[in-house]
Amino acid sequence: MWDNNAWTFFYDNSTDGEPPFLTQDFIHAFQPDAKLIVMLRDPVERLYSDYLYFASSNKSADDFHEKVTEALQLFENCMLDYSLRACVYNNSLNNAMPVRLQVGLYAVYLLDWLTVFSKEQFLVLRLEDHASNVSYTMHRVFQFLSLGPLSEKQMALMTKSPASNARRPEDRNLGPMWPVTQRILQDFYRPFNAKLAQVLADKAFAWRKT
Questions:
Q1: Which is it for the CA torsion 189, 67, 91, 125, positive or negative?
Q2: What keywords are annotated for this sequence in UniProt (predicted)?
Q3: Is 121 within 8 Å of 109 (Cβ atoms)?
Q4: CATH number of the CATH domain containing 102
């Protein structure tokens, strides 16, 4: 949903930094009746997991905090001169940021997709819900796709499948991010999460800690 880095290869700088067409426009041109399934994770936790997965050395909560601080500063500097959408899709900025802050701005991407596809063509799920109840999530997926229900045996096999992209054993000892880093990221993502929850009419997508 968020990976649109190739747009700059096809358009010049006459768009004020905002892409005139994105991946969804091309998909819609070929498959206008597509059904789209999206699974989203709390963007704060997603960013830390992303850092642990892709960083190759010197990983630590301290290093993550420094990279988050640098990325936020770069993004804020961009926003001084350009629109939100221009900054989100700015390949140079995204490549310069030491962590992929922009990936968690789900509302920006979803709203762009909703300019070409209807909301009824989307099933948006939360990773947290899937992790806690795989059976229910898969029931929703099959229902959304108008497929027949799974048998108990098929569902049992599916729910026992190991998770992919799980945290590596050597990364588990690093512990969580610092509380101060978590608060900074929660503040940054809060308005985007609130917008996402509003668009989806589901307050669970605000990821508000209780």
A1: negative
A2: Transferase
A3: no
A4: 3.40.50.300
* pTM for this model (two decimals): 0.90
- Residue reference for tokens 């509003």: 198
Amino acid identity of residue 80, one-letter, is L
CA atoms within 13 A on the CB side of 194: 6
Burial of 191 (0-12, 13-18, 19+ CB in 10 A): exposed
- Complete DSSP assignment for 82-146: S-HHHHHT-HHHHHHSSS-GGGG-HHHHHHHHTTTS-GGGEEEEEHHHHHH-HHHHHHHHHHHTT
Establish if 57 belongs to a structural domain: yes
Q: How many CB atoms lie within 10 A of CB 188?
A: 21
- What are the E-state strand segments in the chain? 36-40, 122-126
State the average pLDDT over residues 47-74.
94
Distance CA 1, CA 107 (A): 11
Domain-located, residue 8:
no
Tokens of 206: 């605000």
d(CA 201, CA 185): 23
- Per residue in 91-141, pLDDT (tens digit) is 999 999 999 999 999 999 999 999 999 999 999 999 999 999 998 999 999
